[in-house]
Amino acid sequence: MATGFSSRALVRSVPERIGDRVVLRGWVYRLRILATTTFVIVRDCTGEVQCVAASARLRDKALKLDDTVEILGRVRSDTRARLGCEVDIEELRVLNAAGHKLPFNSSADLSEVGVEARLEYRPLAARSDSVGDAFRVQAALLASFREFLTARHFTEIVTSKIVASGTEGGTNLFPIEYFDRVAYLAQSPQFYKEHGVAAFERVFETGHVYRAEPHASSRHLTEYYSLDLEIGFIDGPEDVIELERELLTYMFAEINERHAALLARHGRPPLPSLEHAPVWEFGECLERLRSAHGTKHLRDDLDPEAERLLCALAESEHGVAAVFVLGFPLSNRPFYTAPRGSAGAAQSFDLLFGGLEITTGGQRLHERAQLEAALRGRGLDPDDFASHLKMFELGMPPHGGLAIGLERLTAQVMGLANVRDATLYPRDRYRVTP
Amino acid sequence: MATGFSSRALVRSVPERIGDRVVLRGWVYRLRILATTTFVIVRDCTGEVQCVAASARLRDKALKLDDTVEILGRVRSDTRARLGCEVDIEELRVLNAAGHKLPFNSSADLSEVGVEARLEYRPLAARSDSVGDAFRVQAALLASFREFLTARHFTEIVTSKIVASGTEGGTNLFPIEYFDRVAYLAQSPQFYKEHGVAAFERVFETGHVYRAEPHASSRHLTEYYSLDLEIGFIDGPEDVIELERELLTYMFAEINERHAALLARHGRPPLPSLEHAPVWEFGECLERLRSAHGTKHLRDDLDPEAERLLCALAESEHGVAAVFVLGFPLSNRPFYTAPRGSAGAAQSFDLLFGGLEITTGGQRLHERAQLEAALRGRGLDPDDFASHLKMFELGMPPHGGLAIGLERLTAQVMGLANVRDATLYPRDRYRVTP
Predict the structure, then answer these.
(1) pLDDT tens-digit readout, B40-63
(2) Strand, helix or coil at A397?
(3) Cross-chain Cβ contact B233/A135 below 8 Å
(4) CB contact (8 A) between residue B96 and residue A397
(5) Do A44 and B106 touch (CB under 8 A)?
(6) pTM for the whole structure
(7) Domain that holds residue A225
(8) What is the ipTM of this complex?
(9) Residue A403 belongs to some domain of the structure
(10) Neighbouring residues of A307: CB distance < 8 A, sequence distance ≥ 6
(11) A88 and A152 in a common domain
(12) Which positions in chain B touch A46 (Cβ < 8 Å)?
């Protein structure tokens, strides 16, 4: 029997092949060497299966956990096994041995391994379910975000991350030596996705954004992955909120369906529908915080404590720990934000979920004259935004949109306290490796 | 009748609503003002529909092409119309007027507009099918790439684009001022996707890569979008080639199905299956070029002319203008490339498609000792790659992978001569705006 790649059986297919000889390739995930019999649990990207041989036959292989191996064996029905079968090993070949001193093994529970070691040995940590599952969920969040929007006639766009200036006037930018000039890493695809509305009406982009913010908190990264969308022909931010409500409800239902076993092994309850998540005005939120918790220090924005308290209030009143906060003070929002009434509020919202802000969105100004006035009102010079403002004369619909931080969303879905555990290779003030 | 966003009808749904009053929102795509009757073709993200009113009733709206409008009207069956119906306008409201002097209109054929104007007025150009269709195809290529791989048990990963050093020893990197140190924009996710194999066995990433190459040719960009995949437990580069053959055949069939009308309006034939695309050894390619075309100057690599000629040879022999060239000289490939035999060839391939290289791939070295020897052989110091080499002791399977340039692939699919026409916001030596 040839043992090549093309004849290899994925673990998932083994239960359908009882009685057959199969070729498996994978990692030694667990290993139990008894006097007469050796049990090798082999893991590949589709699951784990127990393989069995007489210990004497495997002795010269010096098998260790996390070695990569090829096994030729015969599938035998075994009702005690999780898959309903085992594999009797006929031949075993070590493809590439793991080192003799690993900091941990992929079958270990890594919750007691520090975050630094989990990052330093990323591939080994991510091979374990305790760390790797967050990234499987992240991939499914990405896929379902794109699926939902594509079905709603959104076009995926790819926009440049090398820009001549910032979208908000030039703070917290990383400069790039771009041949003989300076350029910057984009803080957001904001301008490009607004231009995208003028082109395609509905657009989304999934990509990195960059913030040169010196703090290194459990919720901030200098490079994060943003799920951006922008939609034309809306009446107001409520249309964007409704879209996000349906979007996240879809995404969460997909995670519940595709990853039920994964959520269960992390002790996570199924993700909620956001159908009943309330929309509270910003002023109303301050009122609620004051009357329920005596919070008095907030004026123009919420803080992490307020985000937690508001989610708890939403949960007790509406059964879901999520709330859309609408109508933030305009002074705290970017120049392109549309005003909400004339009392200084913005058509701008945050979504707080599980105690953390995971989205900022809103309606944008769509007329050139409004944008010029807004820039001047903030002491910015419209001439510095000339190439952007020009796009508002090409037939720009009323529009709005939002951005979801993928790492934060993943952390909330998985119950992780630090966004670094939802980032394969996090970047912060002090970290640029691995 | 309310005319809000939630009651708005997308053009695609209009034929199902004959006899109903509907609210449309979109752009004035075409406009024909006769003495008594005015015809307004309204376009939204789902299509175009003809709307009709007495000219006198619309006169004070001063309608122009590319204005954004809302129309309240009644759907009337009309067998002469493309959709089988028209809309009798009852009310029309201009949502945001286009400027009075546009460089072109979105309904124009932009093939006679220069590439610079198409880039400068990107949203307006992309609103036209002549420019925008390439991006609709691009989005479908992205979606089908991810679908195929997800169904084959690949995990999508997101890796950092801010790195401490290059993957190939430090040339052509863009430096970033990263707080008080220098970092660089990643040239490739190569190292991270190899680490990804050690974690998840099969990974893909779609994201930007950066090359500080000063030339500004029709096929090079300083920032491009790379479709990367890496797969573990292979036997050789032929397994990667077979995977790409199936991957692209799937992607092309999806484009043929989802975008048949689009391809037709650009005069593009359906995309081919790559089932019969040949695999030719590099030496065999030089031989073929010599005997068919007298080409004698090539030694270590192909050039653009050779890529065109080889595709033409493949087309005449196998009916498809695509060829996998395998076994490039090792000296021209990165240090991590596995050798093919002992005569200086590499387990490395390119895919030439329609006359252009759109993929580089191959099998990689997977043992630490091999990598250290390869680095030393190129005068590089293994200590400079310590954090990368460490990952090869954690249980690294034999592996390989490939990268497809999304802009090049899009250009080949659409028959575009310049990759800039397949890039919303291209970056090159001289361009960082818009």
Answers:
(1) 999 999 999 999 999 999 999 999
(2) coil
(3) no
(4) yes
(5) no
(6) 0.97
(7) 123-422
(8) 0.97
(9) yes
(10) A352, A355, A356, A357
(11) no
(12) 153
